[in-house]
């Protein structure tokens, strides 16, 4: 009987810790979850190329200006 009670307590504590960790990460996300290493937000819409008007990802645009490539 005590073994079953301890197992339920252990499983309940593990489940509560998992739920608490998920709530914490979604409520106060770390900076690494919001932006990539170039400082570009992960969920950003495409931008228009200034000369051709074709859609570019914001990551490509940031990489272009960071590396200085033509």
Low-confidence stretches: none
**Percent range for helical residues?**
55-70%
Class of secondary structure makeup: mainly alpha
Record field, number of beta strands: 2
Q: End-to-end distance, in Å?
A: 73 Å
Note the total helix count.
Answer: 3
**Rounded mean pLDDT score:** 87
Overall geometric form: rod-shaped
Largest sheet: 2 strands, antiparallel
**Spatial order of the strands forming the largest sheet:** 1-2
Which band does the percent of strand residues land in? 5-15%
Radius of gyration: 23 Å
The H-and-E topology, N to C, reads as HHEEH
Task: Provide an overview of this structure.
The protein is mostly helical and 70 residues long. It is 57% helix and 6% strand. It is built from three helices and two strands. The chain has helices at 2-27, 31-34, 58-67; strands at residues 47-48, 55-56. Strands 1-2 form a two-stranded antiparallel ribbon. The protein is rod-shaped, with a radius of gyration of 23 Å. The chain starts with a helix and ends with a helix. The model has no long low-confidence stretch (mean pLDDT 87).
Short description:
This protein is mainly α. It is 57% helix and 6% strand.
